[in-house]
Amino acid sequence: MAEFGGPEVLRVEQAPDPVSGAGRVLVEVVWAAITFVETQVRAGNAPWPVRVPLVPGGGVAGVVTAVGEGAAGSCWGGRWR
């Protein structure tokens, strides 16, 4: 998101393929969600200061495809432990 506003300000952009870094995992996203709060942020109505550029949408589910060095933890019901 480069600016606040309605659907008319949204645009598709190219981004480099992500890679897992130290202490991180790479997830192939199968499902993503945008919450009502995120729609309000995009519209410029957030109750807290928000700066752009911004990539909204923290709700994702998918498959861990790479584990960076030092990444530790587990996932719900998955194979990464």
UniProtKB/TrEMBL annotation:
Q: Which UniProt keywords apply?
A: NADP
Supply the Pfam families for this chain: ADH_N
- Enumerate the spans annotated as Alcohol dehydrogenase-like N-terminal domain: 21-73
Ranges in coiled-coil conformation: none
Asked if the record carries the keyword Metal-binding, the reply is no
* Key word NADP present: yes
Top-level taxon of origin:
Bacteria
Could you tell me which InterPro entries the record lists for this protein?
ADH-like_N, GroES-like_sf, Zinc-ADH_QOR/CCCR
What's the name of the protein? Answer: Quinone oxidoreductase
- What species is given as this protein's source? Actinosynnema mirum (strain ATCC 29888 / DSM 43827 / JCM 3225 / NBRC 14064 / NCIMB 13271 / NRRL B-12336 / IMRU 3971 / 101)
